[in-house]
């Protein structure tokens, strides 16, 4: 199977997350796989784009589009091997003939298992995360038939978060969210004993689906290639959850419930079955008939505290045998006759599903076992299963994280006492640097005033440099300095989760905010400030490192510190390693709304040294107010890890680096793409009065000024935010004209009727009165200008994109809209096409970018 899928080369050196995110010529094609070797890459690309059809393994033969029917039939025949029955037909021939061919697609579960077995821990985690967003069932126990081993995927599932809302008896909804690895819920397992005419997966999907629509959470025999024999996926255990939305008309169960599905017969996969009986509140056993052999197998479960239910579909003439053996099992398994359900072809399907739901609801309401994925992992270890998280690198990284986070009792106090450089000292230094910059361009200010500002800045930097890194920061630096690349990556992920858990509870947003995984688009009055305080995150530790580097560099520049006495000169190199491995790094500090220039320059210089000859860059940025889906758009388009509106997030602008495959870099015209997400910097205030607007307009100008391509993300029918309009007009004076794409994103679910999208000319025309002042700029003729009057905003030449809503239905059980995924792919293709055709600003190398950052 690995050879068939082209994955045999990834057994010694596993496929990495960076491998899957490379920009190649295939990134611009929406093509169907033409051979089994294309399937893993097609699956990864579609999964990255949250495409609901990612599990489709149909292969389209590579026939020229102008070929006639005879040619197509001839080519199809060439793909089939004929065996002469007169020849010696050996067992090997029969074995070969059973392998999937282009005519018989690979079973999607085989593809999933093969890909997971060929991926490193971090790609496995990304695959599982994207599958959860697509509402696919997630792999829990991964079989490896080649090595006869079973792996429990705790690490792979740890990055998956769950959000729900339950309607309490009175007043207000109760909200819940947390890691799938830690949240406890009653679990219900569905297994097969020998042969069953009923499909477990179809039954599970029916149980999980509301009355108005069927969800194909678990892949089943009725779907494409679902009926094909599984070559390596038997023994796979999958998990999915029902999560309530807080709406009684939609919620099947009032609280979260986990469902487990064992692929294959329990007699052949006894360790997995034991695990399910150890962790489930109830087990549903599907079988057609119970023989004496099966009776002995079931009798061995005597003494289990788990409840057992049988779903039978008896063959004609076997009824009496089934009843006799079941009557003997009832006292052994502590059952009664209500635990035996019969489903035959004449059974009412909807009524049967309601009965199964009623059993699940009854067991969940009664005192029962409630487990998390972490609890299941403990049980798996006792049964001899391997747990992916138990490797030494992962455990060492976890231990270091726990040493740091156990000292955090209150995140605000920790930042104040332990991360001292980024409080008032950095805020004051940033203000002085802004004043210095302003007087530099203000004509001829008194030299005395400039000297006074430089002296004040030097004093502040000396105060900062007088501190030593706190113990927690030293431990963090040790963690990211590990010689083991794997341990370094494990440490960063552990820190992200550990800091989220260590922080004190914060004001929670509304249920609607939690359920849509992003804040709702807010009005003019409340967009200026975030709904919650900024949580403690990895970016604060990196920000502290940046301030130590800034202070030291300032003193060296002023001749107050010999270069040979520097202690923090290696910090940019440490941070760069994280950027190259996919961690977003802060470009603009969200607290002070300023750029640590020396730190960012140091990072870019290190990047230039590291990339050497492959240093041609394109900068792509996304701007818009919070809640318009900017970060989700970038993450879906390129597989990035920008923080989304799932909850409290960092406020600053962050950057990530994408690598262009060497085979494609000449054609595309660049070696890397630097992606900038404006985060929560642009608040959307509607007047130009006040310092906040000035800061937002300046930051928008900075981000757009650095960019070759800028995507402006808009919500519903609102005008372009004033700060961004102001930046447009400023940039026209500089002659810097990025390629602009305006993206209208619907904030309603795709199944709901939406408001009519704006037309191009409406979008660029003169804005409403409330924001008119912000877009008027005196030109040389004394008149005013609006966006529609600028050459680079010609509505006939610019693209205005209309993106459907992310969700089809009501979260958290909503599926991702196929229209959203397809529209995002088309936007991505257009952006890359514009870069390749030179429609963006002239591509730059890193040294040119460093100079541009300094000038802007």
From TrEMBL:
It comes from the Eukaryota. Residues 614-854 form the VLIG-type G domain. It holds the Pfam family URGCP_GTPase. Keywords: Cell cycle, Cytoplasm, GTP-binding, Nucleotide-binding, Nucleus, Phosphoprotein. One of its GO terms (molecular function) is GTP binding. GO terms for cellular component: cytoplasm; nucleus. It is found in: Cytoplasm; Nucleus. Belongs to the TRAFAC class dynamin-like GTPase superfamily. Very large inducible GTPase (VLIG) family. PANTHER family: UP-REGULATOR OF CELL PROLIFERATION (PTHR22796:SF13), URG4-RELATED (PTHR22796). This is Up-regulator of cell proliferation. It comes from Physeter macrocephalus. The lineage of its organism: Eukaryota, Metazoa, Chordata, Craniata, Vertebrata.
